[in-house]
């Protein structure tokens, strides 16, 4: 059995460590490209690695189910082998019994002579008949024994091959899953290191590193709007504000591009809002906030900006319109009119076009 590789890895892919180093080089040199911080590329690489790991894990589980079925088939073959041995033993028994009977009633030379002369006794005739029967039984037993022997040999060979294939497949696929898991971990660590160098604060025990892991967004999505735990939210460079990991990483990339253009970071007045904060804003600013529990702020996917962006058709606002979508951020249609909120921007990973 030939076991194919689950995921083809690039022959000379750059190591995650090198990728992290390139983040600073690109940023320091102010090089071109859509993402001056290279974070989006790292995030997508992390997501790709996670997807490959997930697919490999599913394939491994599927293979294990197949192995379980093969083990069942193996047990069936071994049972068949045992039954074949039992039948073989039964077939040998009549020959053995006939031989024993012949031993008890031997046909000597005198018996054969009298049989040929036509005056053999009943005992002689019975003995001669037994000999004939033994010969027939023996011939039949020899033929059946040959067939059963071939069957037992085939079954034994198939059982051995099946067991060997199962062990080989399990070992190879487990090794591939481990390799992919290590690769995914390295990419996430490189992404975290790049975020740290760009000013994302991480405490001594590295808690924020987990918060900024884009692979945790599925877990974050499992919480109700406005009730996402703080350990599921990634801090921004703007102190006191946070977003869901993928939105935060994309925002940091956008923030770096904005800094290159205007010489300063974006001004943020609001990012993630808890349910209590949503209620407070809703009652303080009726008509300018979503119903509590329905705001994209409560999903960690929206920011309210200042520093010029909040002024419609300002240089900063126009720059955002022209560049934000490259990082997955956009100004929603409703915010142009009802209510009019030029400061409100949202993240959608589906429109993130940075390669």
Task: Please give the structural blueprint.
Layout: H1 16-29, H2 39-104, H3 109-117, H4 122-197, H5 207-211, H6 217-221, E1 233-235, E2 242-244, H7 245-262, E3 267-270, H8 275-284, E4 302-306, H9 315-323, E5 329-330, E6 344-347
Antiparallel strand pairs: 1-2, 3-4, 4-6, 5-6
Helix pairs in contact: 1-4, 2-4
Helix content: 55-70%
Beta-strand content: 5-15%
Q: Would you give the CATH topology of the largest domain?
A: Helix Hairpins
Number of helices: 9
The H-and-E topology, N to C, reads as HHHHHHEEHEHEHEE
CATH C-level category of the largest domain: Mainly Alpha
What can be said about this structure in brief?
The chain has about 350 residues and is mostly helical.
Features:
mainly alpha; 2 domains; Helix Hairpins; 9 helices; 355 residues; 4-stranded antiparallel β-sheet; Muramoyl-pentapeptide Carboxypeptidase, domain 2; 6% strand; disordered N terminus
């Amino acid at each position: 059995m030939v076991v194919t590789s689950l995921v083809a890895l690039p022959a000379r892919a750059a190591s995650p460590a090198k990728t992290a180093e390139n983040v600073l080089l690109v940023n320091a040199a102010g090089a071109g490209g859509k993402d001056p911080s290279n974070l989006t590329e790292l995030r997508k690489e992390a997501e790709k690695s996670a997807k490959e790991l997930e697919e490999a894990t599913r394939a491994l589980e599927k293979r294990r189910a197949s192995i379980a079925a093969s083990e069942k088939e193996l047990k069936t073959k071994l049972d068949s082998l045992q039954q074949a041995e039992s039948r073989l033993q039964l077939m040998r028994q009549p020959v053995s019994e006939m031989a024993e009977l012949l031993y008890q009633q031997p046909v000597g030379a005198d018996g054969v002579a009298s049989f040929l002369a036509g005056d053999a006794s009943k005992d002689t005739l019975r003995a001669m008949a037994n000999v004939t029967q033994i010969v027939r039984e023996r011939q039949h037993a020899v033929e059946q024994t040959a067939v059963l022997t071939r069957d037992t040999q085939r079954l034994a060979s198939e059982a051995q091959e099946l067991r060997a294939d199962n062990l080989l497949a399990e070992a190879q696929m487990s090794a591939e899953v481990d390799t992919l898991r290590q690769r995914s971990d390295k990419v996430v660590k490189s992404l975290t290191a790049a975020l740290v160098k760009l000013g994302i604060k991480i405490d001594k025990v590295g808690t924020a590193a987990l918060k900024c892991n884009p692979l945790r967004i599925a877990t974050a999505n499992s919480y109700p709007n406005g009730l996402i735990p703080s350990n599921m939210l990634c801090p921004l460079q703007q102190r006191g504000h946070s977003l869901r990991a993928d939105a935060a990483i994309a925002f940091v990339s956008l923030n770096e591009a904005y800094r290159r253009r205007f010489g300063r970071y974006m001004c943020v007045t609001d990012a993630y809002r808890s349910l209590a904060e949503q209620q407070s804003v809703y009652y303080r600013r009726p008509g300018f906030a979503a119903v509590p529990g329905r705001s994209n702020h409560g999903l960690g996917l929206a920011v309210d900006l200042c520093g010029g962006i909040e002024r419609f058709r300002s240089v900063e606002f126009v720059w955002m319109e022209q560049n934000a979508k490259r990082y997955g951020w956009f100004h929603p249609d409703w915010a142009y009119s009802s209510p009019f909120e030029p400061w409100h921007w949202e993240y959608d990973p589906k429109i993130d076009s940075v390669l």
